[in-house]
Design goal:
Order of helices and strands of chain A: HHHHHHHHHHHHH
Distance between the termini of chain B: 65 Å
Distance between the termini of chain A: 53 Å
Shape of chain A: globular
Mean pLDDT of chain A: 90
Oligomer: heterodimer
Helix content of chain A: over 70%
Number of strands of chain B: 10
Strand content of chain A: under 5%
Helix content of chain B: 40-55%
Low-confidence stretches of chain A: none
Mean pLDDT of chain B: 83
Chain lengths: 318, 457
């Protein structure tokens, strides 16, 4: 009951506060001389958004960075010790190595498969059917996908689909999730299964944006399909590919759910995000967990900078 | 044109961001209100007390006290009903209202409570580790009013000590307990009776095993906690081969993993794995709950399985066995010197607010009359020797009760008492070991390095 009241309150109060803020700002800015009012209005509009970013993004980030300099107990300053631990512990280094595998293969396979499918089905009659089938896994949560794929990888061939195939072909059941480094790749397959649809849809949309006159002109000039793809489609799709790639890179760095549900990092499949979770919630080491979070943040920053710069370039062109 | 459109865009941006922020901002308030309704003070849980029976005379000795006592525990459903039945005579005799709340995540709730000071009067404790930590922080109050020597005299050796802090004060009591050092078998296939020693067990298994039947059933998969059945194995081997002293030092982080004793225990477990159904890959990918399924097949895949008493539920649901199909015997002595050692688990209770009502409740829970109430309802073992074995509802629980009563040494699950980082590394290490036993030395030295940092606090 309490919960119902508070949710109704939120639903009604949030728009009310927003409208109230807008009206107040307008009344205030409208009273000022026009030149002054026009100058400060955008800043007043920005203020709430900026405040929220400050409270929910900037402040936690700074707090995490500071926390990473302290030990397991609050207030015990340890300097860079947590970072030293990260870069000397064999477990975190193994996790780092696996994240690099995720980074390279999840990104490469997802973008590659997405691009191939987008181009191949672009002009076929059953395009929407194919796209729907490939896009569907996107709708499933990572955890559900992990559970589903655990059954796929089951050792017992009467449960595990993959081993049923292996046995039908006359082989011995393979423990997919136990033998390293095979198991990390089997986990990456799950990620690709989930993300390829996303890449495909975005790339397909980019493909539709290429004007047909351009493609027709190339074909009239005698270019074969491979040349059209290499010299026309690919360059024009490059901005889209860059956006997809950076998105998937960030997903690869943050990989958690699949590993947590399928192996929990056992048998050398550990990744940084899962390590961070364990440090915080299992080991009671908020300092180490914060250091891991900061390292993850630092790893993502170049990707973000690349994205922002790319975005600005496009704005400049427009 | 361009400039006139900008405020509109900004409006949408603001709305979107504020809405997003508010939707995330609303979750704390929602959980806060959920917390209030689930707080120990809620009247719902207090009035849900089902009728109890017996025990009126002992409860009457408390006299009238009145007031209320708030209790948080991990029990819900039928366990909650049993606990409420257990406190019913106390409520009737003293006029104290017991307001119980069942929480599925006790550790998290009490950890937050210790930090904020919002704590129930009496609470179930997730384990000895956190219990001692909370006592050191001053949150948990000593149970000075309980006669520790009397409590010790009616319970197996080492049982009461699990609730004693390093300064010798009692801070936790067991409301109920369970035994883990047991070996289950299918009656149709096992002819070895109750072997008293590891040797007897091995030779009985050799003669009973025909064709491809192996001795042991093991399944180690358990989601994020995979490996725990193997830790129970190794703990039992350490306890029964090297005794409680080595066990205690090992659990406390004072015995190295690479020491000859612990290494031998791992090697003994390696032998068990070699003599188990399905081979390493099967063991690693099979859930602990279905691990014993081959035991009930014909011909059986294996003869024995080592597990806590809760496993019978899985026998019935996963393997389709009937309660009459299986039985158990106590884990046999490896070194005869340590026969009768029992590894167990239990529900510890402690007191956060030293109110008269809370003190009286703790004293009531310790009485054999109170203990007998839950025992009769099933699903609990009492450590108290004054609860007659005939009170237990079936033959299996009577046997388990006898085993706990006869225990010469009682020890709590070792991995559960280790610091979490150690516990987690232990779980993981058993998996690596089962996968490739030749790596034992590097696995143990890695555990040593975790040990050197995990106990630092």
């Amino acid at each position: 009951m309490d919960r119902l009241i508070s949710s109704v309150l939120v639903v009604l109060a949030v728009p009310a506060v927003l409208v109230g803020y807008v009206l107040t700002i307008e009344a205030f800015a409208g009273r000022l001389p026009r030149s002054v009012g026009d100058r400060i209005r955008p800043w007043l509009w920005l203020l709430p958004a900026f405040a929220f970013v400050l409270v929910f993004l900037i402040y936690p980030m700074i707090a995490t960075i500071l926390r990473s300099l302290y030990g397991s107990a609050e207030g015990k300053f340890v300097g860079a010790e947590n970072y030293v631990h990260f870069f000397t512990s064999s477990q975190t280094l193994a996790a780092l190595g696996n994240n690099i595998l995720w980074l390279v293969f999840l990104t490469g396979l997802t973008v590659g498969i997405g691009l191939i499918v987008a181009v191949l089905v672009d002009r076929v009659r059953y395009e929407s059917v194919v796209k729907t089938v490939i896009f569907l896994p996107m709708a499933i949560s990572f955890v559900a996908a992990g559970v589903i794929w655990r059954f796929m990888y089951e050792l017992n061939p009467s449960v595990g689909t993959l081993n049923a195939v292996v046995v039908a072909l006359g082989g011995q059941p393979v423990p997919w999730l136990i033998n390293a480094p095979l198991n990390t790749f089997m986990l990456i397959v799950v990620g690709v299964w989930m993300q390829a649809g996303f890449a495909m849809v975005i790339l397909s949309a980019g493909l539709k944006g290429i004007s047909t006159e351009l493609l027709e002109a190339a074909r009239v000039d005698g270019a074969n399909e491979r040349q059209v793809f290499r010299s026309i489609m690919l360059p024009l799709l490059m901005p889209t590919i860059a956006v997809i790639t950076t998105t998937i890179v960030i997903i690869a760095l943050k990989t958690f759910d699949i590993v947590y549900t399928m192996t929990n990092g056992n048998f050398d499949t550990e990744v940084i995000a899962n390590r961070m979770y364990k440090e915080l919630f299992n080991y009671g080491q908020p300092g180490q967990a914060s250091a891991t979070a900061v390292i993850l943040l630092v790893a993502v920053v170049p990707v973000m900078l690349f994205n922002i710069r790319r975005f600005q370039q496009q704005e400049a062109i427009r | 044109m361009d400039s006139s459109r900008r405020p509109l865009v900004a409006l949408f941006a603001t709305v979107a961001i504020v809405a997003a922020a508010c939707s995330s901002g609303s979750s704390p308030s929602a959980s806060e209100s959920a917390g209030t309704s689930a707080a120990p003070g809620s009247s719902e849980s207090g009035s849900a007390a089902p009728g109890g029976s017996a025990g009126g005379s002992a409860a009457a000795s408390f006299g009238h006290i009145g007031g209320t006592v708030t209790v948080v525990g991990s029990w819900t459903g039928s366990e909650q009903d049993s606990f409420m039945a257990m406190v019913k005579p106390f409520e009737d005799a003293t006029g104290v209202q017991v307001q119980y709340t069942g929480s599925r995540d006790l550790a998290a709730q009490l950890t937050t409570g210790v930090q904020s000071g919002n704590l129930p009067d009496v609470a179930g404790l997730p384990g000895p580790g956190l219990m001692k930590q909370w006592y050191a922080q001053g949150a948990l109050k000593p149970l000075d009013f309980v006669d520790l020597n009397a409590y010790k005299s009616v319970t197996p050796p080492g049982y009461a000590d699990l609730g004693v802090a390093s300064d010798g004060k009692l801070i936790g009591i067991f409301v109920k307990s369970a035994v883990k050092s047991v070996v289950y078998f299918a009656k149709a296939n096992w002819r070895g009776g109750d072997p008293k020693t590891w040797q007897d067990l091995q030779s009985a298994a050799k003669s009973a095993a025909t064709g491809s039947t192996k001795t042991w059933c093991i399944g180690l998969e358990s989601g994020a906690a995979s490996g725990w059945p193997a830790t129970d194995w190794i703990e039992d081997i350490v306890l029964h081969q090297f005794g409680p002293d080595v066990y205690d030092k090992w659990v406390a982080g004072q015995q190295k993993w690479t020491s000859p004793e612990i290494k031998q225990a791992w090697q003994a477990f390696g032998q068990v794995v070699n003599d188990a159904y399905g081979g390493p890959n099967y063991i690693l990918t099979t859930n602990f709950g279905s691990g014993a399924n081959p035991m009930f097949k014909s011909p059986p895949g294996c003869l024995l399985t080592h597990a806590g008493s809760f496993i019978t539920d899985f026998f019935q649901k996963q393997a389709g066995a009937k309660p009459t199909d299986y039985d158990f015997f106590p884990f046999p002595a490896i070194n005869p010197q340590y026969a009768g050692a029992v590894e167990g688990a239990g529900d510890l209770f402690g007191m956060f607010n030293a109110t008269p009502q809370a003190k009286a409740l703790i004293q009531w829970l310790l009485t054999p009359d109170a203990q007998a109430i839950w025992v009769k309802r099933g699903g609990a073992l009492s450590g108290n020797k004054d609860v007659p074995v005939s009170d237990y509802p079936d033959a299996a629980s009577q046997k388990a009760a006898q085993m706990l009563r006869d225990a010469k040494v009682f020890r709590f699950d070792g991995s559960d008492q280790m610091p979490n980082a150690m516990n987690d590394a232990f779980f993981k290490a058993t998996l690596d070991f089962v996968k490739d036993q030749s790596k034992l030395d590097s696995i143990l030295s890695n555990l040593d390095s975790v040990q050197s940092s995990a106990y630092g606090g």
